[in-house]
Write a structure and sequence with these properties.
By secondary structure, the protein is mainly alpha-helical. 60% of the residues lie in helices and 12% in strands. It contains 7 helices and 6 strands. A 3-stranded antiparallel sheet has the order 1-3-2. It holds the Pfam family MksE.
Length: 194
């Protein structure tokens, strides 16, 4: 029972910060927690519902949602979602084939920034609110730390700065698809004549 309470607290600590627990995490403890949730979902869900959190299952990852959120929280999530769209656009500009399980190196992104004006502009736009006036390597390092903190990537090899895209990347991709579907539905509606 004590181990169960400890695991539940550990899961809550991670998910309540808006992070994800992924099946393909580099950290073995995170992979263990994913497996623990899988095996104990029926016991965990009611515990989290009692304190106002819904345990959600994505494509090999878990996260929290809140059924009754304040307007401010919803606005913050929309703002964060828009940022994720920009981040996903940046990584897609770098490499169109990036998906869950893929790996990339910081050096490769920096090389592309040198020759790809669109990538350079996107990075500058992403970082102008947080750290304007820095060089591209510093801006990229800050962006990578942010994406890691959000739980979308893990450092796989510190020596050559190889990063692995986690299963939670699917969350960002689904967000983009939802926005695209909404836009298509709005654009396909018949226009009223005045």
């Amino acid at each position: 029972m004590k181990d169960s309470n400890y695991r539940t607290a550990e899961i809550f600590d991670i998910l309540s910060k808006g992070q994800f627990i992924c099946s393909n995490a580099i950290n073995s403890q995170r992979r263990y927690l994913y497996q623990y949730i899988e095996e104990n979902i029926n016991e965990l869900e009611p515990k989290f519902i009692d304190i106002g959190y819904q345990l959600e299952n994505g494509n090999n990852y878990y996260y929290f949602s809140r059924p009754n959120e304040s307007t401010q929280n919803v606005e913050n999530k929309i703002e964060k979602g828009l940022r994720w769209l920009d981040i996903l656009a940046f990584f897609t500009t770098f490499r169109k084939d990036l998906c869950r399980g893929a790996r990339f190196k910081l050096f490769d992104i920096l090389q592309q920034i040198d020759i790809n004006m669109s990538l350079k502009e996107q990075l500058t736009d992403l970082q102008k609110r947080t750290n304007p006036g820095r060089n591209y390597q510093e801006m990229l390092n800050d962006l990578i730390r942010e994406v890691q903190k959000e739980g979308f990537i893990d450092l796989e090899n510190e020596m050559d700065q190889t990063w692995k895209i986690l299963d939670s990347w699917d969350y960002m991709e689904k967000l983009v698809m939802a926005v695209n579907i909404q836009d298509e539905e709005i654009n396909n509606q018949p226009q009223e004549l005045n």
